[in-house]
Specification:
This protein is of the alpha/beta class. The chain is built from ten helices and eight strands. The longest helix is centred in the first third of the chain and has 21 residues. The model has no long low-confidence stretch (mean pLDDT 94).
């Protein structure tokens, strides 16, 4: 584990893996179908694990739907309080900041406060609340009645992303909802998404080599063009100042690097069309 941590701290390793992620994205994009003309036709529910995922994963899609007059509801599952550890602000203060940032970012995207719900589960602990989140989402899906649901990729390395994916799919199944399901990649581009951390170094190297190749042909990618909405997506992400800037001036305050942003804020948004789970009989 310590060797993996040292490897991840290496600037050369990070540059190399981000370059490979960019190549992999181009391969997925080459296989993807253009959904731009279809995206404005249906109402949607956007499920975000943390404040900022709604913008990074679906900002263009949200704006296109609103421009077409289709209703969009955003649900943000966790409070984001543990994204940074600071000597200047507490975790609860950071949670409040991140909620305000999400409201402002959604305003830039065209969403009013009444179109955003915060479930306020503790950041980095969603895995322990999957059953409760599933029940809550089942009720919300029945209440909102969306035609499409957007959720984080099951392959994302972040545990909150995977937990929300599992809870959402279970909720859709239990609700018997006739919806189209789209997964959006955020930490999908992180090498940790593709390996078992407790495996041997040789096994991890093999996993990192083979799993992306198999997945490339298993996924059903689609894309939505950014076009005139791209600048506004950048502005919306900038509203998430705690992620986009060094909010407190502390030297260890992590800021999302430009290479990662280039995978997420670009000339299209990439999604994976998910097979519909089998609905339970009432």
């Amino acid at each position: 584990m310590e060797m993996i941590k040292r490897l991840y701290r290496s600037p050369q390793f990070r540059r190399t893996t981000l370059w490979l992620a960019s190549v992999y994205r181009r391969l997925l994009r080459a296989r993807a179908r253009d959904f731009t003309d279809k995206v404005g036709h249906r109402s949607s529910l956007i499920l975000a694990p943390h404040p900022d995922d709604e913008t990074l994963g679906c900002g263009i899609t949200i704006m296109r739907k609103i421009a077409a007059g289709r209703p969009v509801q955003v649900i943000i599952a966790t409070d984001g309080r543990h994204s940074h550890h600071s000597a200047k602000i507490s975790a609860s203060e950071l949670a409040a900041i991140r909620q305000r940032e999400a409201i402002e970012a959604c305003r830039v995207l065209g969403l009013g406060r009444d179109r955003i719900r915060f479930l306020e589960y503790e950041d980095q602990a969603l895995l322990g609340d999957v059953a409760v989140v599933t029940g809550q989402l089942r009720q919300m899906i029945a209440e909102i009645g969306p035609q499409e649901i957007y959720l984080p990729s099951a392959i994302d390395s972040n545990p909150d992303h995977r937990a929300l994916n599992a809870a959402a799919l279970a909720a859709i199944e239990q609700a018997g909802a006739a919806v189209d399901i789209f997964e959006y990649p955020i930490w999908f581009w992180d090498p940790k998404a593709w390996i078992d951390i407790d495996a041997s170094p040789i096994a991890m190297a093999w996993q990192l080599l083979t799993r992306p190749i198999r997945t490339l042909f298993a996924l059903r990618p689609v894309f939505v063009r950014s076009e005139e909405f791209l600048a506004r997506k950048r502005t919306a992400f900038a509203a998430h100042q705690s992620q986009a800037t060094n909010l407190t001036g502390e030297k260890d305050w992590a800021v999302m690097d430009q290479q990662t942003l280039d995978l997420l804020i670009r000339d299209d948004e990439l999604f994976f069309l998910r097979p519909h789970p089998k609905a339970r009989n009432a």
